[in-house]
Amino acid sequence: MSVHTYWIVDIDATAGEAPALADQVRQWLVEREIILPGPPLLDEAYLPLYRYGPAAPRWAHENALGHDLLCAGLHIVTERTVFHAGEGDVGPFVCPHCGATHFDLPWSPPTEAWYEGGGDSSLGCPACGTASSIAEWQSGWAYGHLGFGFVEGWMLDRLRDALAALTGHRLRVVHEHL
Questions:
Q1: Is residue 149 a contact partner of residue 4, using CB atoms and an 8 Å limit?
Q2: Distance CA 163, CA 74 (A)
Q3: CB neighbours of 139 closer than 8 A, spacing ≥ 6?
Q4: One MF term from GO for this chain (predicted)?
Q5: pTM exceeds cut of 0.90
Q6: 27 is in which domain, residue-wise?
Q7: In a domain, 87, yes or no
Q8: Contact (Cβ atoms closer than 8 angstroms) between residue 5 and residue 150
Q9: pLDDT per residue over 60-99, tens digit each?
Q10: Which residues are CB-neighbours of 113 under 8 A, at least 6 positions away?
């Protein structure tokens, strides 16, 4: 069985901010009945997993929520994570300085350095020559300490926009397929 997760990743949250922001967003989602209140389910693959609430379909693409699936719901991550596409590709890469798009860059070493929290996580742009942390580049992946994974749910962009307004942070979307 394959699992699809629509990640909304806060790329600005620090490790120290992530738990409090996660609670704030979770409460916002409960108040709008996007997820159910109470303790999350303990699923084998996603611990914990908050079940979708009755308003979730209004925030998702048509027929894009797996309400009846045991693994469907919201998974919240509050630790340094590379949110990846799973079977999908990491590229293309868009330079945060000049906007140039590149399809084949040496992304693995800076990704490992960022994940480990040390070393050089920079990636140089062949077009403008500027180096930036891999976390600043736009790609099919996101790097951060806070992510909201809508398992078996494909949410509308307006949810990402509402969470960005709530947190005041930049958010990126990653479509993961495992």
A1: no
A2: 14
A3: 90, 91, 92, 93, 94, 107
A4: protein serine/threonine kinase activity
A5: yes
A6: 17-66+141-177
A7: no
A8: yes
A9: 998 777 656 667 889 999 999 999 998 767 879 999 999 9
A10: 119, 120, 121, 134
